[in-house]
Design brief:
By secondary structure, the protein is mainly α. The protein has one domain (about 1-135). About 90% of the residues lie in helices and about 0% in strands. It is built from 5 helices and no strands. The chain has helices at about 1-30, 35-75, 80-105, 115-120, 120-135. Helix 1 (about 1-30) packs antiparallel against helix 2, helix 1 runs parallel beside helix 3 and helix 2 (about 35-75) packs antiparallel against helix 3 (about 80-105). The mean pLDDT is about 95. It binds protoporphyrin IX containing FE.
């Protein structure tokens, strides 16, 4: 079961690399004015989104595998586990919101300033801190 946890954490790091960097690309993309930069950012965003989606799917697969293997039986009544799963749901919503923004950039309809993309970058950081504290400290 420690092998499952190790792969879970490895793919979680892959996922977060994308969750942190994609909005940075949006910041630069929002400031880009020429067609060549626009085309380059569209490609970079798409490739990063594919990698981070693979990270998300594999994180979920190993997480659900651990739940089925031992964790659900051990902790299904625990508040920390329910809270963690709710926050993971919020992370998935954020992931899909990034997809929506990426499509807006590709279509040329993205309308927010670079300041907006800087701010949304804080959301995965807050979720990361909350989820790791919950799952490692299991406070309640
Ligand atoms: C579908 C999504 C997920 C499921 C079903 C899931 C489930 C689990 C389970 C069952 C464990 C084992 C707990 C234990 O043995 O103590 C675990 C460990 C862990 N999870 Fe997740 N998880 C998911 C997503 C995430 C995400 C998004 C993060 C990070 C933000 C994360 C971070 C961790 C960490 C750091 C551990 C190791 C905790 C420790 O050993 O103390 N998980 N996860």
């Amino acid at each position: 079961m420690l092998w499952l946890k190790a792969w879970h954490v490895i793919f979680m790091v892959t996922w977060f690399a994308g969750l942190f960097y994609l909005p940075r690309l949006f910041v630069y993309h929002a400031d880009a004015t020429d067609d060549i930069s626009h085309a380059r950012f569209v490609i970079m965003e798409r490739k990063l989104f594919i990698i981070m989606t693979i990270g998300a799917v594999l994180t979920a697969i190993f997480g659900i595998w651990m739940l089925a293997d031992y964790a659900w039986a051990a902790w299904h009544g625990s508040v920390w586990l329910m809270a963690k799963l709710v926050l993971v749901g919020a992370l998935l919503v954020y992931h899909l919101y990034c997809l929506k923004i990426m499509r807006e950039f590709r279509a040329g309809t993205a309308h927010h300033s670079h300041v907006f993309y800087r701010w949304i970058n804080e959301i995965p950081a807050l979720l990361l801190v909350a989820i790791v504290l919950l799952v490692v400290a299991k406070p309640f």
